[in-house]
Write the structure tokens for this entry.
Amino acid sequence: MATTGAAAVPSGTVTPRWRRRLRPYLLATPAVLLCVGILYPFFVGVAYTVYNFSDANREPSFVGLANFTDILGSDTLWHSARVTVAFAVAATTVETVLGVGVALLLQRSTLLGRLLERLLIVPLMVAPIIAAIMWKLILLPEVGWVRPILAAVGVHGYRGTDGAGAAFFWSVVVDAWLYTPFVAILALAGLRSLPNSPFEAAAVDGANWWLTFRRLTLPMLWPYVLVAVIFRFMDCLKVFDIIYGLTAGGPGDATTTLQINAYLEAITYARYSRGMTFMLILWVVVYAISFVLVRYLGRVQNRAAGISAGPTAGTPDAAPGAPAGAPAGAVAGSGAG
Amino acid sequence: MTEPAAPSEPSTPSAPSGSGASEPAGPTRRDILRLAGVGVGAGALGSAGLAGCGFGSPANNGAKDSAAKKVSGGFDWKKHKGTTLRLLMNKHPYTDALKAHRGEFQDKTGIKLAIDEFPESNYFDKVTLELKSRQGNYDAFMLGAYMVWQYGPPGYLEDLGPWIHNSSATHAEFAPDDFFPNLIKAGQWNFVNGAPLGGKQQWMLPWGFETNTVCYRSDVFAKLGLKPAESFDDLTELARTLKAKAPGAGFDGMYGIAVRGSREWATIHPGFMTMYSREGLKDFKVEGKKLVPTMNSPDAVDFTGRWAKMVRDAGPSGWTSYTWYQASSDLGAGKAAMLFDADTASYFQNTDTPAAGKLAWHPGPKGKGGSLATNMWIWSLAMNSSSKKKPAAWWFLQWATSKEHLLWAATKQQHIDAVRKSVADDSAYKDRLKAVPGFLDTFQAVIDQTKIQFTPQRNFFDATTSWAAALQEIYGGADAKATLDKLAKDLEPRVNG
């Protein structure tokens, strides 16, 4: 028997209009509360930046943008910004090169390879501050084992992290020790998801390893590598525990990053407003750089997938042999940076 | 990665979709307006919430309204029986002594002690956060004299003056005059930048302290025919000689002198500030109400350059990582021939180390006019102004700093440098230390000139950490005058801000 839609609904179960109107708001409430929970501390921090709030100042007053003008006009900020960027570039480069290299070595699933894969994640299980302290002890010339090893191979005059260059170098080394496995694991996942057919075709055509790597592997792998680069670069810009644990920002201010300055201001010197101003400036820098990098990642993914994505998405020419959609789809979920 | 005081994570623009069909669109004007609206609203909410975060709401710790005034009647140790106090303590031999003796206190008062200990590396961060919260989770805690300059002005500390001077609240044998004058004075300050220590307000009570002297390997000195240095020039020469000759005399890898070098305020206050003060040098001078840095005066530049050179020539490799722990461990391990640091730091190396039984103490070089001006560190006890159990907390503080506990701790435990004259004069205490070569003589030689040599000021930690960073730069080869001029120029607005 044919019935109308209205007749099918028993009249006694009709939801009142006000409840139907209220339902979307009720459903959205948890998300709104979550957003408030996330944003509240952030905006409290932002509010700190326009006061002169510190333990030394019993009656904080509104100072407008004075904290920003003071900090932006100081050598301290620009020096620590240079240190931060230099560290991020150096560490990310080293970790990317080593990580991809390790992934290529472990690409073939052998017994040794599988064993090494498991060992690879060991540094990732170590808290950064623990790694820093561990390395600090290793690097101490009087008690650590670096000096005896160097002396055994004929290198003398090792003085740990005494010099500015040495402190920076060892900070990068510790970061690379900790996070190269992260890059390697991502790259390895990428390598194993690449299709076989282009490589088989290249082998039939007689392409050597270097040509295959340069023209086939690397372009197809690049979206995966780029995800790792973005994650590592963002983390390196925010580096604190590794450098603070290892050198405390010294010698002098040779390894004083923005985060260390913020920590010193907010915790050690109890100048909360200046500390938050440093943090806000760092947030703006990280936000801007991540925005650019994520857009670039989108273009690379589209290019690898052979998709034209409009006037801002780069050229439509796909990477040689790129499988449509494979790398892009594989990393899209984790590409938010 | 865990980072302190970080703002919320940056919200990234939307990621490219899996299909890759289109680029993430930029924010529209409407999006920006919405965001601005959220920002203004949350900012207003945030500002309103600042008070809730402790912003501009100093606790009432003034003497006028002190809870001490409400205590009346005869003094009775059992008056707060049944109360449990929570103490925030640094992991330290003094705390070990307290734990070993707390049964006495609990029996005497009926007050229970719950002690939370944290290692020194993160102890003060914990204290700062606890005080900042104003929750009063801890009733009393350990701190140093310099921390009064940071924790006092925002009202985190209870003024103990009214408690001391109320006979209903303080037992008759407490005897505040029994403390060495410079130690009790170190806890008094009026929070005015540059004002000398002293006055009626008592923000902490001395519990244990360290005076900074030279400890040396007597066997090495004997073998090489050397004597402790009596001037700074002699000390630098002696350190060089030890580094050059000790390894050849059977002390492999031994260097001349260990001092602290890490980039933190604690590098400045022991050996460096002691020798600096003996040379007649000051950190700041007070002009009107302003502090003027003087660590770049010609004499100060000369001294700092010579100190850095001494460390470079005869100190440890990796000096810029050296805290008290590394410096004193090197002495105990037989790597350093001398340590210019806290006398207790070297005292603890005289047990269960390769150097045990071979250490001797000396006041260190004299400065201008034979000065033995010495800087000191005090581990003190203070009351949290937000404590909800202030009377019971005071009962604990007066017991923990009493002659009864301190004499027991000094003779049965490792509470070495006595803060009370009566303990220092006690025969049991003297008998114990007679066996330690030169320790007691050194203590007695410097005690009258041992005091806080820094100028009291609210931004002490910034000034001294920056000073340590400058010292590291000079050690690394930077020009001493240019580095210290820059330090002074940078510091002046900060310490007066």
Summary: Chain A has a mean pLDDT of 84. Chain A touches chain B through 91 residues (CB under 8 Å).
